[in-house]
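TEACHING EXERCISE
Course module: macromolecular assemblies
Task: Read the component lines below, then compare them to the predicted structure of the full complex.
Student: A.B.
Group: 4
Components provided:
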Amino acid sequence: MFNLTQPLRQAVQAAADVLATRFLDRDRTWSEVTERIARLAAALIARGLKPDDRVAVLALNSDRYFELYYAVWWAGGAIVPLNTRWNDRETVYALDDSESSMLFVDDAFLEVVPALLEGCGHIRTVVHMGEGEAREDLLSYESMVAAHEPAEDTMRAGDDLAGLFYTGGTTGFPKGVMLSHDGLYISGLGGMATAISDMPDYVFLHHAPMFHLADAMMIVTGSMLRCTHAMIPQFEPKASLEAVQRFRATNAIFVPTMLAMFVRHPDFDQYDLSSLKLIGYGASPMPTALLRETMERLPHTELFQGYGQTELSPLATMLAPEDHVLEGPGSERLKSAGRVMPHCETEIVDESLQPVPSGTIGQIRVRGPNVMLGYWKQPALTAETIVDGWLLTGDAGYIDEAGFLYVVDRVKDMIVSGGENVYSVEVENAIMEHEGIGQCAVIGIPHEFWVEQVHALVVPKPGSEITEQEIIDHCHEHIAGYKCPRSVEIRREPLPLSGAGKVLKRELRPDKTTG
Amino acid sequence: MFNLTQPLRQAVQAAADVLATRFLDRDRTWSEVTERIARLAAALIARGLKPDDRVAVLALNSDRYFELYYAVWWAGGAIVPLNTRWNDRETVYALDDSESSMLFVDDAFLEVVPALLEGCGHIRTVVHMGEGEAREDLLSYESMVAAHEPAEDTMRAGDDLAGLFYTGGTTGFPKGVMLSHDGLYISGLGGMATAISDMPDYVFLHHAPMFHLADAMMIVTGSMLRCTHAMIPQFEPKASLEAVQRFRATNAIFVPTMLAMFVRHPDFDQYDLSSLKLIGYGASPMPTALLRETMERLPHTELFQGYGQTELSPLATMLAPEDHVLEGPGSERLKSAGRVMPHCETEIVDESLQPVPSGTIGQIRVRGPNVMLGYWKQPALTAETIVDGWLLTGDAGYIDEAGFLYVVDRVKDMIVSGGENVYSVEVENAIMEHEGIGQCAVIGIPHEFWVEQVHALVVPKPGSEITEQEIIDHCHEHIAGYKCPRSVEIRREPLPLSGAGKVLKRELRPDKTTG
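Instructor-supplied answer key:
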């Protein structure tokens, strides 16, 4: 049984005076940060936090976000990191669904607090974790830390709930994925065993959003490696280039869209990026041209790719640095999601859930201690997703004879745009709420930066004179901006349907569409 | 929850046609070996093996020993690997204590079977796993494999018992250390995360005894890495040099005594050892001169050191290759047992079990999923050893500010000779059974090859005229040869005693002794 606060104790033991966090002009050592975490945990407990209680956070990246993850675990609670790109309606849904009793917000989200509180009755405590002046109507993060003596660690571990990570749902509602201490810890160990081995003087740059499980994984793994965690509030290519140079960052993770903006930035050559030793990427397929460009522009930097999903805490396969071969034998592996990792089992099954031979396409399923505890308050959906101990990923793929996984399709009909998952159904539901729409389908079409762009095909009702812009504006009222179509094609002919009456999206995909 | 057969399935998935085992002139692939394991598991079940049932094995190294580990796990049982250097009395004790119902023996131990069966009533089945002619009175390993269709894996996992590993006891009786699937699996993951990272085309040479947990750990870890396992029946320096060359071995583990015989062998230069990439050592402190010599003679080979004990499945700390620095800053770390590993917590406590500051000597204790389930049938001893979830190692040491552990003494008064643990108390008990002895103390004194040599200080009873050789001969009748004193000093003065009446061994240790 692992507990996620163990790396803190080990870091204090082995690296007490090494910097743990660097943000703005604040540098703190592992012993300082661990004491602050224990004090904040005491404050959470004093405010009534009980084991398993959810603590939500809506904030850009900061050293305090890092501390909050650990303080919630130290105090025995479960963290609920909220997507900063959601609209208020979506945020309220997650706050309400998770029954979070506390909410931490930074300056960027202070203004929406009244709207969130109005929509959600569970929140008893709101804490301001930003840089600005303390607000009289909110608790202050620093006052909480200052006012309490360090608490004893509650030592939650194993299958105890560590967090609810919300992910878009095929039904249109985000689902709270329940992840455990063991799941997150063992995923981190698996990553270390595969690609992210021990290296002295690691400096990990958190420029990817800390609410994302991909970055949370690096909070866990980076701390196991006793690395220094440096943060910038959010990814912006120039700020990120500057941060690598300033912090002498050795590590960072990227989604392909971020990486493209980073390596193709006009000022790229003006920065000293020689510290970058290892970068990870994932969350959507990497265009080979971008991978080649990255390897050429950062010749001293090794790359690894992770594949998985929130339900897998999140890692299942990894393409290790030595498998990043541009030419000749092995170069075809760049199209894969890497090899199955040692902390879980990954296999391909047919429609009756029987394993298929190597090379055969089927659904990817995974079992092991990294599989989620389940979907929060959704036992039926959990039972559909975890069958005989195996997590059905909903992705289609095959595994070759050397154990490399190739993901060929996403059964759940998901678009990955700029590293964010967009479930078509959710966008389609939003579009169909417009009274002028008769039929619609949402698909991903290739985009240079976003990898995929959300594209809607719409058939208006007879007599309706709706425009493309009206449809986009309508979506923005209902769902987060990143989910809204960037392009709309209005058709007058009905969309092709399957025998079961579903839109045949494969007939609409880029190579078939006219738009 | 991990199960120890998972690596087999992953190896078949990713390396079906890669050689899994090489022994004598037999080479078998992962798919062949896994099928044989499943067939042997079926034979065990057909012979009545139930979950948790113990299967003992008394044999030198072979491919079949490798298969047997996995077949027992596949069938749901617990393996009991017997020390091949024990005398019959000790072997019968372990067979009897473990209540093993099956015993596998190879050619080297066929002759002792009648004596073992006479002393132990639990054994229902004896299987001959050797190379020679099948014996009519024993089951044949190959017939069992041939006669059964592959069984379904019983999928034992987590805290389920995987094996009883017998270790010398301070009370003079070996104790069965109960290790679980999770414990052994997670120790392997920890090793991979720390030093033994994924590398293609590993060939692991099993020349250390496969009954030892150190080698069993490499069976587990090597299979997670899908490496080829090559075996020789037992360590012998020339055979080992030949095997490295023949199998192009990339990896092996050594105790310091083996390593000294290996690198100092007169024919060392006649062998092509260029394949050796990484060697591990442990089980006793490594003399710095030997380490230096090894690094000079094998300049292309990286080294790592593991520290732990059977009760820890067995790993707790590791000195990684990058910490093997001969000169200048960091070179003092060669005297350490390495850094605490990420799969468990290691700390130092005082006599009241309170943690002490960095640099302070105290008892080493460890907690984590690698801690044993307990001592077999010894709940009281287990409760003394695992206190508040922490395993008390009985070793004394300190941890420096960079998290490196230095082992300074063995509280349990253990001598490590040639990589074998010899508990002084056990030897003292044997000596005291001689009627002519009034008082005795057994200590380790330095030895070039064995690192420590068992040395006895004896005070005869008044009037007794016992000789040194008589004492040594007497010991050979009672305990295994490797435990017997190699040297004896007869004293006429009483040995110095502590206030509590115990012999003050620190007054007798090498720098104080005259012998």
